[in-house]
Amino acid sequence: MEIIGYAGALVMGLCLGLIGSGGAILTVPILVYLFGVEPLLATTYSLFIVGLTSLVGATVRAGAGHIHWPLTLTFGIPSVVSVFLTRTYLLPLIPNPILQAGTFILSRSSFLLALFAVLMVFSSFSMIKNPPNQFPRNSNPSAGGYWHVINMLLKGFLVGGITGLLGAGGGFLIIPALVLIARLPMQQAVGTSLVIIATNSLTGFWRDYEFHSRINWPFLVHFSTLAVIGILLGSSLARKISGDKLKPIFGYFVLVMGFYILFKELFLS
């Protein structure tokens, strides 16, 4: 199972490099089901892995000029604030167990995994449907005025909440927002998304200082190294292969996995 898990780390990096999203969608299930990491700790692991991997990918994209820095700040600042608030105040409020009715017990771990599975299902729909760069694009990414900025700030805060709660980067929400609202070209949207994901994830990991003593650092370094190799390969392949062609295939895989995890945690636990 560990060999499959490490192969999954490579695939996770490839996905981030090719389509700019899907990293944590794979990372958390791999950590929980293939390596036996406790779900809450797995979100901390995921924040580090996805954050480091995205940072490497963003550095590569920055060298190619594929990052829109003003939008990175507009979207990223409320995201970081939301990550910090969620990890600090919201996550500790979740009781354990969540629900107990007769013989049915919904633990916090199962609840977080079920919530993550719902996120997987929603993210799969955004991947399966028409790629966002098929929509018409404004030549000026900063056009839209006051409501454009408000929309981006709200989307940023939402993505930060998801990252903080589930350890997911939220690329499946960031990229459509950047392409459809901000009218960025797909290459710039992916690069900008990676910067935001890296900042959010590493902020969340830094906030989880109480979990750092429980981290298996050699394992985390090995997993992260494979993920980084994957994103470097994915970034290289992105120049030759359109990520939009791969997105629907990956989306169907995520959809099946989401329903499987949802069924397992709610009915088989």
From TrEMBL:
**Transmembrane feature ranges:** 6-35, 42-61, 67-90, 111-128, 157-182, 219-237, 249-268
Write the record's keywords in alphabetical order, separated by commas. Answer: Cell membrane, Membrane, Transmembrane, Transmembrane helix
Subcellular location, record wording: Cell membrane; Membrane
GO cellular-component terms in the record?
plasma membrane
* Superkingdom of source: Bacteria
Q: Name one Pfam family in it.
A: TauE
Q: Chief subcellular site?
A: membrane
Stated membrane topology is: Multi-pass membrane protein
Q: What is this protein called?
A: Probable membrane transporter protein
Q: What is the lineage of its organism?
A: Bacteria, Pseudomonadati, Bacteroidota, Cytophagia, Cytophagales
